[in-house]
Fold:
Amino acid sequence: MSSNQNISFQAGQAKGQTQEKASIMMDKASNAAQSAKESLQETGQQIKEKAHGASESVKNATGLNK
Structure:
């Protein structure tokens, strides 16, 4: 293998490794974003349920729920 071929081969390997690392990092970022989204949705649902419960409590206390 000539020197130019070796350099080209090494450059190709480095490019492939860089692309693979970038792909892994993008997957991790995507997973983190999905996890955050799910967590926020769950938190939002819990808040909604608590607000509904509080609303029902006020209605019951004031007699508006009859």
